[in-house]
Amino acid sequence: MQIIAVIGAGTMGNGIAHTFAQSGFKVNLIDINEVALENGLRTITKNLDRMIAKEKISEVDKKETLSNISSFTDINEGVKTVDLVVEVATENIDLKLKIFKQLDSLCHQHTILATNTSSISITQIAAVTSRPEKVIGMHFMNPVPIMKLVEVIRGYNSSDAVTNTIMELSKSLGKVPVEVNDYPGFVANRILMPMLNESIETLYNGVAGVLEIDTVMKLGMAHPMGPLQLADFIGLDVCLSILNVMYDGFKNPKYAPCPLLTNMVQAGKLGVKSGEGFYDYSESRKAEKVASQFIK
Predict the structure, then answer these.
(1) Annotated catalytic, 151?
(2) Residue of 71, 116, 139, 199 marked active site
């Protein structure tokens, strides 16, 4: 495994590219939007500078990491020589199916196709390719350079060889991979999202306010971040999308999104990324600064 393609230069995509590049892999970071690519590379540089300031890496390490990353707006050029593709596009099933059909036609037959989806069926994605045994989930946590967990999700046809390769690859990144099976929400979000949704329901029902709910969970349950603050950090639109996937998959009302969450997303209050969610981030200089207070 020598060359990795990462499709999508947003928060998760640039974090995954950063992590692979810092571990010595050559990375092709791909995004059809040139501005998104520039912003992604800028974020990687800032995160490396933060690591230098904390004396976790040297200036030489930073230069080597950045030299390992090449950027592309042409997906064909970006994936034609790679050993692994990690797709990090928006959590939209139609978009992901379109991308994987394209990847299947562009990549060498030996190339493993992974998705960073947090809830969408790996089996369904794999079914649009001619290599379902080489399609797998590789779900990183945000912020990727810091968080240790990688959920490795086996689709119905994912081979043992491919699964073992991704497990070992994750370990080489300094991560802790956990193998899970392909059911809506997998493990992380199947447990996390109902908790976040119930916290929003608690607010919606007038049981307590935002600060009170978060304080109970931080001080009473030893959570590093309250659930409403965490939902803002993840993105309320992302939370809504995952809950909808789980509700559609299980047909169980316990996964139905709270009306307050739905209304907030429709109103454009998405959390940190929009400047307002359960908390007001409008006075912060940048969303990155808000997020960085949680990265120690």
Answers:
(1) yes
(2) 139
| 61 HSE (CA, 13 A, CB side) | 16
Q: Are residues 194 and 171 in the same domain?
A: no
Of 128, 125, 133, residue with least CA distance to 162: 133
CATH code at position 172: 3.40.50.720
For residue range 71-104, list pLDDT tens digits in order: 999 999 999 999 999 999 988 899 999 999 999 9
pLDDT in tens, 208-265: 999 999 999 999 999 999 999 999 999 999 999 999 999 999 999 999 999 999 999 9
- What is the Cα 21 distance to its own chain's centre? 17
| Residue range of the domain that includes 48 | 3-181
- The total of structural domains in the chain comes to 2
Please say if 118 is a catalytic residue.
yes
Catalytic residue among 14, 118, 119, 199: 118
- Active-site residue (options: 189, 199, 241, 274): 189
Is 108 tagged catalytic? Answer: no
The reply to whether 139 belongs to the active site is yes
Supply the CATH number for residue 264's domain: 1.10.1040.10
Q: Is the pTM of this model over 0.90?
A: no
Kindly name the residue from 68, 151, 157, 197 that is annotated as catalytic.
151
| CB contact at 8 A, 226 and 203 | no
